Amino acid sequence: MVESYVRLDARTAEEGYLQAKSWAGAAGAAIDSALLFGVGPAVIGALDELGPVLVIPPLSGSPAAVGAAAERLARFGASWITVASNSGVEAMRAAVAAVAGAGCRVAVETLPVGIDDAAAAALVGSARGRHVSRLVAAGAGAGVDGVVCAWGDLGVVAQVAPGLIRILDPGDGEARWADAVARGAGVLVLPDAAALHALGPARGEEARPSGRSRRRR
User: pTM to 2 decimals?
Assistant: First the structure.
C-alpha cells in the first residue's frame, strides 16, 4: 500500500493544523524546516491527533545529537524522521536505536531534495548513481526503514536495497506520481492538497496515510 503525505504550507501551528485537518483520513502531513524550527517540535503533537506526520528536515550532527533529536521527535508523535546521510552510519544507527518501539520509522536522505545531476556531481564529486548507491547501502546496513529520493533514483535504490521503502519527494522538480508508484515508490510527498485530489483517480485510491496516529509521552 502506498502512503501519501501532503507538504504543509504553513508558518504557524494553527495554520498547519487547519491545513492537515482538511485532508485528514486521506493523507498524512509532511512538515518542513520553516514550520518545525519556527514553531518547534510540539507542532508534531498537534498534527499527530489528525494522522501520521513525516518530518522532512534531515537530522545531522554527532550520533549522540542525532539520537537525542530523533527520540524527541518520536516522543512528540512523528511517524517518519529523516537523517542526513553525510552524518555517517553511526548517526543513522543512533536514530534507529532512539526510536525503537516508538512506532516511528527512520529514512535516510542521500541528496538534498530537488538537486539536479550537475549540482549533485559538484557536491559529492562523483556520479549521482554511484553516490546514491553507496549511501543507500550504508543506510540499509544501519537498519533504516526508508530512503528519501528523487524520481530518477528509484531504480538505483530498488537495486541496492529492495527492502527499503522508497520515499519520493521531488521538491520543486517534476512529479511523475503514477510512474513512481509503478516503479515501487512506497511513500509520496505531495506538494499540496490539489495534487492529492488529482492523484486519486490515477493511483486507484491506493495512497493512504500510514495508520493510526500514536504518541509516546
Answer: 0.85
